[in-house]
Amino acid sequence: MTDLTGLTAVVTGGNSGIGRAMAVGMAKAGADVAIWARDEKRSAETVAEITGYGVRALAVGCDVTDEDAVAAAMEQTVTELGPLGCLVANAGVTDGAPITEMTLDRWHRVLRTNLDGAFLSTREAARRFVAQDSGGSIVVVSSTVSRYGGTGLAAYSASKTGLLGLGRTLAVELARYRVRCNILLPGWTRTPMTETLQADDRFMAATTARTPVRRWGIPEEFHEVAAFLADPALTFHTGNEVVVDGGYSVF
Ligand code: NDP
Question: What start and end residues bound the annotated signal peptide (predicted)?
């Protein structure tokens, strides 16, 4: 059983879906957890759930595309919860359209949140870990879509493939500081992000039929994985791509 007692964890986009589940999982393992997201009401609800596990929790209003906001969020987090132990770069958006209809604005919005946001938050974490001389763990949330693409997913898929490059580079570059970086690749999961797809019967039938476990995932399936990857005892676990997709990507 992973024991994260005394560890401070940050989950960007931790007030919804997969991020919320990972935040809860780390709290159950004993970590104090900061949620960085824009919707303060939703974050307050998540904090209430997390504190129910007897740990400290903090809701930080933060747009991860805003460089100053990310720096301020980190400062507030370590001031209130203590030195950083783990950052999960999970915040993300999607916006799908055929490439012939995709606008530059829509493309930029997806890349700004998914790539710039992950760059800014992991850079801030790396700076902290180096200054603390503490080691630490970074988890970058990509997607199985990074490996196979998908109709209408040009911007999303490009951003998620970019995150593989970011995560791999951090694993190589930060190992000398005892900072590990692993990449999580979720598959189709029932969250607010995928609500439109969930309402599309033909899409659901096709993706479910292609999934060996014959269903989509639910957020709770991500409880343990971030807690596991955050465990400071796992000193040899870095640069991994952890796929959680019911076997979709190997079918
Ligand atoms: P949700 O829509 O449920 O959650 C997205 C989270 O990101 C919310 O907490 C949202 O909070 C936050 N967020 C979005 N933009 C910003 C921003 N600019 N600054 C700070 N926070 C932001 O989605 P999921 O839980 O499904 O997705 C979580 C991650 O998992 C994403 O990176 C997604 O790409 C990835 N993923 C999801 C899959 C799925 O099938 N669901 C499959 C593969 C990967 P707020 O709006 O309050 O800011």
Answer: none
